[in-house]
Design brief:
With 315 residues, the protein is α/β, with parallel strands linked by helices. It has helices at 10-21, 47-54, 72-87, 104-107, 128-134, 170-193, 226-235, 300-306; strands at 2-7, 25-30, 35-37, 42-44, 58-60, 92-96, 112-116, 124-125, 139-146, 156-163, 209-210, 242-246, 249-259, 268-272, 275-279, 284-291, 298-299.
Length: 315
Amino acid sequence: MKLVFAGTPEFAAVALRALHEAGFAIPLVLTQPDRPAGRGMQLQASSVKQYALAHGMEVLQPLSLRMDSKDPQRAEEARAAHARLQALDYDVMVVAAYGLILPRSTLDIKPCINIHGSLLPRWRGAAPIHRAIEAGDAETGVTIMHMEEGLDTGPMMLIERVAIEDTDSTGSLHDKLAALGGRMIVDALRQMEAGRLEAVAQPEEGVTYAAKISKDEAKLDFALPAEVLARKVRAFNPFPGAQGLVDGVTVKIWQAEPVAGQGEPGQVLAADAQGIVVACGAGALRLNELQKPGGKRLAAAEFLKGFPLAGLRFS
């Protein structure tokens, strides 16, 4: 079976690596254009591109796959990408966190299979891992689905569940689901080759949408219950990083847990080696790892040496 692979971040690169190591032929890889990253804002290739080039795979990076785009450059790149796909001998396109919409013209060339990091139909959309943690879901998983024009609406081929631990951040859960997705897509394609893979329509009930994460969401409102804020801290780690404003300084909060406590929301109730306890709308939040602008991530005890918080209040 010959594959075209479309993906961009590390979640997708894990799947590409699994398919390559399993022996599937991958003559072409699609990924998003290089983006500025890091303090120097130098152009950086995606994780998928880096793996593909290191293993001799052809890479295309169109800005869009919509040939009807009003932007002449995007339309031209889309036409070139479609011409390459139509000329290529392949059986299936595998898609994982590509970041570009696949129009009908692409979906009609060959079957397209998606690796999605949720238990569909829950959390269709761009940020399923973040939203599952933020909502307090007890479990999530990976769904292998046949793609159609709707947003993650296609029939499901395989689905596996993973418990969300109280200590899971988006970063840790991402790594679990990426590894699971890599294993599952290999299994799905082998079953497809053997004619044993069936697709089942998604249930009509239980549909939710995982909207893209905005940086504004990272600003914590301490009038909310501590349980809710603790989930937000985990959901926004590593991106965009939960934030609290104290004494005019925006502090990133990387680890926190709900504890007993009472006071005006935002009031620092305790600040010592055990952590920084901040009153919330219900209960309190103990901040265990923090970071000042331009500084390093520090455990609470180390953070307090350079930024005493006793008597202050998060606004």
